């Protein structure tokens, strides 16, 4: 007998739904970050669709629904979904470029070593993180699934307010351990990346510090171009400079 799905398990509004638009034989896979959802990539996705690309924005398991879903997933689930999304897009397109935001940048780099990814965009990739407390989460996870954040953010939009209460106003421990495992794997493979790479970072990023520039540039084996934003925070693809970022990405992929 099928169990009734709780209301809170339903995706938080249209903005959290996966996106797939078939256009050109050239596809772009956009991967959101830790505790994010497809809504972070939607603006960039729409601009790439306008330029004629076929675009896929998957939703990573446990994201965009509720925190209990999030706690039931791990790095293997997130990586499997990214791999599946790439394979699905590759069946529709002659070539596929990959764009990853934050933890999505880690997933994107891993994909670049497993598939023939011609162009790779790493947007504020979380190879280096500012909050060093993440490194003690393996110990904290033995006692707590999450802790409430002291710096809570409130939103007027009801969907964002719900997402905030489920994800962004909590410091997760068990999922953070999975993030660290994914980070170690991506770091180990980064030296095998030979894709043409665009690295986008922000000087005011509160999550990923500027040191990530040297970290990535020293390891990537393919040609790499770096752009530093002056106004944006961490979600660079959907912040105050999102129009500029969309133009940068589109131009890079079209060249």
What does this structure look like?
With 255 residues, this protein is an alpha/beta fold. It is 37% helix and 17% strand. The protein contains 9 helices and 9 strands. A 7-stranded mixed β-sheet has the order 1-3-2-4-5-8-9, with helices on both faces. A two-stranded antiparallel ribbon has the order 6-7. Helix 1 links the parallel strand 2 and strand 3. Helix 1 (42-50) packs across helix 9 and helix 4 crosses helix 7 (174-190). Mean pLDDT is 93; it is low at 1-10.
Cα separation of the termini: 54 Å
Determine the structural class based on helices, strands and strand pairing: alpha/beta
Radius of gyration: 17 Å
Output the number of helix runs: 9
Report the count of strand segments: 9
Helicity level, as a percent range?
Answer: 25-40%
The pLDDT mean sits at: 93
Task: Please specify the SSE layout and strand pairing.
Blueprint: E1 19-21, E2 26-31, H1 42-50, E3 54-57, H2 67-71, H3 75-90, E4 95-101, H4 103-114, E5 119-123, H5 137-140, E6 146-148, H6 158-168, E7 170-172, H7 174-190, E8 196-202, H8 212-219, E9 224-229, H9 242-254
Parallel strand pairs: 2-3, 2-4, 4-5, 5-8, 8-9
Antiparallel strand pairs: 1-3, 6-7
Helix pairs in contact: 1-9, 4-7
